[in-house]
Amino acid sequence: MMEHKPVLLAACARLLGYPCEDFQDMKEELLAAVREEMKDNELASRFVQAAEAIFSVPLKELQEIYVWTFDWKEKTGLYLTAHELGDSRERGAALILLQHIVRDAGFMMPSGELCDFIPLLYELLAVRSDNVHVRALELRLAAATERIRKHLSEDSPYSGLLNLLMTDVFEVPTEEEIRML
Predict the structure, then answer these.
(1) DSSP string, 66-94
(2) 15 with 117: CB under 8 angstroms?
(3) For the segment 93-138, what is each residue's pLDDT rounded down to a tens digit?
(4) Which residue, 31, 40, 43, 178, is the most exposed by fewest CB within 10 angstroms?
(5) If we measure between CA atoms, which residue out of 93, 95, 125, 91 comes closest to residue 107?
């Protein structure tokens, strides 16, 4: 399982980005890459099933679901520091600290995106899990991902993807670990 973690993180990051006009265009390439990288095993099949749930929704509808799910609801938002600190004053300082972690890991963030955008942090984790600060970030991401998963409606096209992340990529953090964060 662990050897497939970078592939799953990168693929999930792609699926959790806003579904732009060319979203469907990446489907075949993404699914083929996952199948090939993971030797078409049972985990790859579960990923494909989770991805198909997202790709099967017509684009306009998927865009509406995405905005409604991830932009309008606090508990399913895709910004790490918002999960950790809400809309508090400490969030600005946390963003600056996270920006340093990202930069120190040698990861370039796309312009116009906050450094705590969870899909981009999944990508960072996929390519730089050896960095000590990134390893600590993994626990924070696990806690936020679990919170999103718990608050996502069962019929969301994204629920299978979040379930996969929590069963096959992250370990569910303990109450103690969450308190320490």
Answers:
(1) HIIIIIS-GGG-SBHHHHHHTT-THHHHH
(2) no
(3) 888 888 888 888 888 777 777 889 999 999 989 887 676 677 778 8
(4) 40
(5) 125
